[in-house]
Amino acid sequence: MAPSPEAAALRRRALLAAPLLALAARAGAQEGWPTRPVRIVAPFPPGGTVDILARLTATWLQEAIGQPFVVENRSGAGGNIGAVAVARAQPDGYTPLMGSPGTQAINAHLYANPGYDGIADFAPISLVAEVPNLLAAHPSLGVQDAAGLIALAKEKRLAYGETSIGGSTHLSAELLRLQAGIEGEHVTYRGSSPMLADLLPGRIAWGVDNLPSILPHIRAGSLTAIGVTSRARWSGAPEIPAIAETLPGYEVTAWFGLLAPKGTPEGVIRTVNAALARMLGTPGAAQRLAELGATPIPCTPEAYRAHILAEHGKWGEVIRRAGIRLE
């Protein structure tokens, strides 16, 4: 039976009002936020850089906002499991993600179906910090910088390693290979310790690791620092050149930042962004990050989104050219 004219009119008014009600509900959801603990999802295991930075960020935000911020590790599939959990969470500001190049810009090119969209499914809040990688060689090679390593690699096939297939250390090595026009025997490892176990005795010629993990071996004289992967030299070890000094345009940094599920109220995004910017601007935060080999890089949500888009395009091209693919 067809509805009466009055019922049809009521239905039309309800449909027209639905968007306004949704906006009102969203506005109400951010009033007084947060009223309960906020759970930051770290999509990698405890002890790694993502976990450490997530816990530091939780401490800083708790101090700035006055409500508990806790970290939940949901690791697996190169960060995909944790990222999926946040992408599907309620967009109420209580489940942000500590994102990284892998979760937001790289995995889409590596996995046939990561289960989420690192750009469309998230609302960026702010970058937190970036950490350069470091390329090191065994002293027996007799090279001291990127130019020397590249020249040697063009003469003979060298074995090289990295700490995570598809991660920033792997892509650091592949970008060097592509830009320098060299080949070699690629050996991949699951973590820093296994890679160093082969690099330190010279079973592989050179390798790439996060700076904090490999720097002690440089300072002990066990390995030769070839260069950092950041655009410029790292202030904590200015004697180590940047690879970009030999290969202009070369740059790889492992960056980390907070994102919320798409649809999170704008007021929540701006509140967290402002609080994080304040805390990252304190001398204590800068010093703690420097101890980890990291640099604070707070930014606006708009700048963070632009950064993710640029990284997505850059690494998609590198992965395509290098022929890297995971199931």
UniProtKB/TrEMBL annotation:
Keyword Methyltransferase assigned: no
Keyword terms: Signal
InterPro entries: BUG, Bug_dom1
Keyword Signal part of the UniProt annotation: yes
Signal peptide boundaries: 1-29
Taxonomy, superkingdom: Bacteria
CDD domains noted in UniProt: PBP2_Bug27
Protein name (Swiss-Prot/TrEMBL): Tripartite tricarboxylate transporter substrate binding protein
Organism listed in the record: Siccirubricoccus soli
